[in-house]
Write a structure and sequence with these properties.
heterodimer; A: mainly alpha; B: alpha+beta; 11-stranded mixed β-sheet; 7-stranded antiparallel β-sheet
Chain lengths: 115, 814
Amino acid sequence: MKFFISLILTVLLSFAICLFLPWWSIAIAAFMVAALIPQKPGKAFATAFFALLLLWGGLSFWISYHNDHILAHKVSQLILKMDNPILLIAATALVGALVAGFAAMAGSYLRKTKS
Amino acid sequence: MRIAPFIASAVITTGLITLLNTTLVLPAPLGKLLSPQHGIWQNAEPDSQNFNEDLNFSELKGKAEVYFDDRLVPHIFAEQENDAYFVQGFLHAKFRLWQMELQTFAAGGRVSEVLGEKGLMHDREFRRLGMVYAAEIALQEVNKDPIIKSQCDAYTEGVNSYIATLTESTLPLEYKLIGYKPEPWTNLKTSLFLKYMSYDLAGHDDDFEMTNAKSYFSNDDFSKLFPAIQDSLDPIIPKGTPITTPNFLPQAPVYTDSVYLNNHELVVSETSKPDRDNGSNNWAVSGSKTKSGAPILANDPHLGLNLPSLWYELQISVPGFNAYGVSFPGAPGVIIGYNDSCAFGFTNGGRDVRDYFEVRFKDDSRQEYFFNGQWLQSRFRVDTIKIKGKPDFIDSVAYVQLGNDWCPVMYDKSFTGNRSKGDKYYAVRWKAHDASNELKIFNMLNHAKNYADYSAAVTNLHTPGQNCVFACKNGDIAIRTQGEWPAKWKGQGDFVMPGFDSSFLWQGMIPQDEVPFQYNPERGFVSSANQKPEDDNVYPYYLGRNYPPYRGYTINKRLGAMLDITPQDMMALQTDNFDAGAAMAKPFILANLKENDLSSAEKKYVDILKNWDCRNDVGTTGATVFERFWKSFEGVVYDDEYAQAPKVIARPEFSTLLEAILKDSAYTFLDDISTTVTETLADDVTAAFKKAAIELQKIDAAGNLNWDKHKATRINHLAKLAPLSRLNLPIGGGVRNVNAAKAEHGPSWRMVISLTAKTEAYGVYPGGQSGNPGSKYYDSFVDQWAAGKYYSLWMMTPEEAGDKRVIAKMHFNK
């Protein structure tokens, strides 16, 4: 249950905070959620990782789908050196997921006492 | 709290963010770029993008409505004329900001700020040519003209009002990819952009290459290799038209021969220059030759083809005028187009308005220079060039006064620009440095109602000089070869000139009312295609060399024969792929080719050439064979003479070799001077064909023998990023075709206007209205352009606001 609440909160808070702050504020969102809702560090990592995988993957897929992948075709060739919109979406999701995951782990360690 | 793992994961997070937010390790800041809410995804414009907006700006004096049609062409209706320029600036910025700024950075020598050290050579060259100096002088002229000043002010405010709305997410894609931000627009940037056009159209010179050719060859050979007269010339003003008596004629210095024409000193040059084929076609036919009885005007300017396009299509409707056409992102007004009374277009005048003078300084401090027997004081312009990631570069350029004009000593010991050997000083006298107010022409043309208005407008044109075509609903047609051109004596400025004696300077300008022009000529049409404006035998001023004759030849022949002309006929002519030069050459090649000396593999290409209709259409293989043959033929004929030549030297024109062999089968250069036998035309043609066949077999094996595949016309993104470019377009045409579509250069806007009671207008350009590579409007016209098809241009009326073609509305209020 904690997992789902954390996951949804991380998604929502990341989206909201990025309306005002730079992209790396997803780390703040993930950190805060992990600090507020205590989970084991590994679980906190997984929660935030999946949260951003869903958010960034979902957002970029949604945007790209409505764009007929025009931009993704071009930018994937520039950044990944291959014409593959889905891979660009996957890379986007992974970048967000990694940053959020480690930030959430830090948040979890902030709350965690040595057992 | 578990301190160690907390610190560890916090450090990893911070490290990851730093890694993904900078280019310290990765080539791109992936986090910043890929964030769906900030980065490149924000530039992925939805298929159904809603362009409707309600905007308020205190700078506006009244209301303005903008209706976008289904090609995203804005139709601007403003209560106040200057508000329309504000809106134009806003829209240019909204759709083309990156390109606008990049072009002014290129013009002003500021590329290093964006690209780093690799831009430094370009920046120094442009600053040393005096681009900023010229733009500053132009801006002073604008400031003296209240109408143009307020037009520019409104435009600049419009651009800046858009820039002010930008956030990290709404920045154009290229700023995100390269990693910088736009700065505010200024009127100086508009001037710089216009000077960039002057550079592109009137910045070409062969002075150093020609100086080397003159120094290397004997006078006799030189005059055969670089004749000033072309037999196939059909000038803009037909031969036999009477000439007005000139007010004054420039006098050649008495000792021209010893220090100038017979000076055999070599210089160097391997610099990049504007494409010499920057040219165009334009013509107007009078009602007597058209089916409707109304004049038709056609224009297609040939320029470098890029994405985003140089052009932005729009309609401006204000109380003073209602005009439609293409505009330059970077400048207000309609540049090529039509209004409710008339239509106007341009081709490049192509005269040499950039000459070099060798300056003698007393010493390397460049403080004093020798001129007319005395030592004079030079001035200095010190430029600070900012370089991304490096300390600033300080460049000091000496300016010397030659006659009345202060000219930058562009090439000196600190900057050879690959043009000089570094031991000499060369000052550049460039017409674009002189005060002029180019925007006034377009402002007046947008308002023009008749021939008098058009003439009054174009006589303001100084540089770049243009052949200005005109047609009016009252039936008038006209062409004026307008521009302020130096009146030159024969040979003046073909080579680097001595800079110590005022008699070598330009002695004056050809008066604006003495320029060649035609107004309702008897033949029922006017036309230009960058050929020489006048017959050399009658025109009193020196016109220089190297004008392309073939497009003009084809156009005049076709227009002369046509009757009952429709706009569709004009489109067919604009997209015509006939090669007049090849048609003259082909029978001659085949007659002289020793077929018995060829193998069956080589004969295959002879058959292709025999069956070729001299048209560079898509799918033809004959054009490829002809092109490769001619290239090889030029080599066989001239390479032996050039064997000991300096690396950088002028080569003869296509027309020079063709005309030479057509009239003299014993042309001097046919003999290979490195052999003991005397080669004939047949020997050279056969040897050239054998050489070409080797190349052709390779091209054939790669599957590229079709002309369009071999030519591979492409429209490059301005930063040369291939995925943002359109490559290998299926389009015919070529350098001697009316459809002058070359590999990276060609018809940048095709327009046909029939001036019937309700104007019938057609146009297309190889690009799209949006500069955003993530928009479907980025390259939406490219396929239509390549196929030689046009769009019907819609001069919208306010009553048509409910028309189904309108896809969005923008309201601008104060």
